[in-house]
Amino acid sequence: MCRCGHSATFDPYGLWWKFQRKMWDDDLGKAREKFWCARCKARTGKRVRPIRLELVQPSKDDIQLPMPDEREWKRALSRFRA
Ligand SMILES: [Zn+2]
Prior knowledge:
Layout: H1 12-22, H2 28-31, H3 38-44, H4 70-81
């Protein structure tokens, strides 16, 4: 959610995978720094950080990010189950 009123949601699995690949900290507070508003970017050319980042129910409007391939995905799942 940006102060301009624009908000976006992401597919949680693809987003998680992006953070894994980049070795980013997935703590929500720190994750905020990785996002910026596409609308403000288009208008001002600046990367405006969101004022709020929160977990919401997945929906069909979520922005889809690339998913890990089958093997990676299974390996990741087994790590969580361990
Ligand atoms: Zn904005």
